[in-house]
Design a protein that fits this description.
The chain has seven helices and twelve strands. The radius of gyration is 17 Å and the shape is globular. The chain has helices at 12-26, 45-50, 116-134, 160-163, 171-180, 187-191, 224-228; strands at residues 2-8, 30-34, 54-58, 66-70, 74-78, 92-97, 100-106, 142-147, 184-186, 218-223, 230-235, 251-255.
């Protein structure tokens, strides 16, 4: 059994008490974090080591930041140099654990359709697809996961008719993600086909979590052989109801490897 999770913490410093308690109860083998909002020097390596986790970190002051922690030995770690990620932005980290490449990505939000930041998001997604293919990762046991900032279809947002065409639910983004993830399977959708399951509830929406006005924008994608070995997937949504939560909840998947 092998369990893996993705969790946009929206500041590891602020959210660490929630993270610590969740790790002690859920105990995933590997976790990919996004939006650390801090440099490597302030990442809680020692505290996580006490919980049995080795840390691989690519931090950035104030913004972005990604990490992978593992209870299993990390065989290799890379911070890829790519032409599609803006210089200085910590958005990609990858590690090999149990013979599986874990590629953790924080895709740009995009801000406004038609803006330079939206174009950057589309280029980033295209670049990720090319990277996965050129590095031969689609031919290996690979999991691409993270806050990919795209809701793939109508089941993945609370009001598809109203939100259609907005950032995060735009056909250009959906197509870019579909092409980038070609050769991989959405593990959550392999096990849960109905709508109403989300990973993100915007702080700015009044009582958005209580009303379940969410988006499914965090994903775990796996190459074919691994996807077939997946046993289940879930959202640990109760974390979003805690005091001072992230606006995201962890997404978890379990595999028989």
């Amino acid at each position: 059994m092998f369990s893996i999770a993705t969790f946009n913490v929206n500041s590891m410093k602020v959210r660490f008490p929630i993270v610590r308690d969740w790790l002690q109860t859920a105990a995933p083998d590997v976790v990919a974090f996004q939006e650390l909002k801090g440099q490597e020097v302030i990442f809680p390596r020692e505290e996580l080591q006490e919980l049995g986790y080795e840390s691989c970190v690519h931090g950035q002051k104030t913004y972005n930041g990604v990490a992978i922690i593992s209870r299993l030995p990390v065989e290799e770690m890379r911070i890829p140099e790519t032409g599609f990620c803006a210089p200085g932005e910590a958005r990609i980290i990858m590690a090999k654990v149990a013979g599986i490449w874990v590629v953790n990505t924080y895709v740009p939000q995009g801000q406004k359709v038609g803006s330079d930041k939206f174009a950057y998001k589309l280029d980033f997604l295209r670049g990720m697809g090319e990277f996965l293919e050129e590095e031969g990762l689609l031919k290996e046991r690979t999991i691409w996961l993270g806050d990919l900032n795209v809701a793939p279809d109508d089941r993945d947002v609370h009001d598809p008719e109203r939100l259609r065409g907005e950032v995060g639910f735009h056909p250009d983004e959906q197509e870019a993600l579909r092409v980038a993830s070609r050769g991989m399977e959405d593990v959550f959708r392999r096990h849960v086909t109905e709508g109403g399951h989300y990973t993100f509830w915007d702080y700015r929406v009044p009582n958005g979590f209580k009303r379940n006005l969410g988006w499914r924008i965090d994903h775990i994608l796996a190459t074919e052989e691994l996807a077939q070995r997946s046993l289940d997937s879930r959202v640990d949504r109760d974390l979003r109801a805690l005091e001072k939560p992230s606006d995201h909840a962890p997404l978890v998947a379990t595999f028989d490897i």
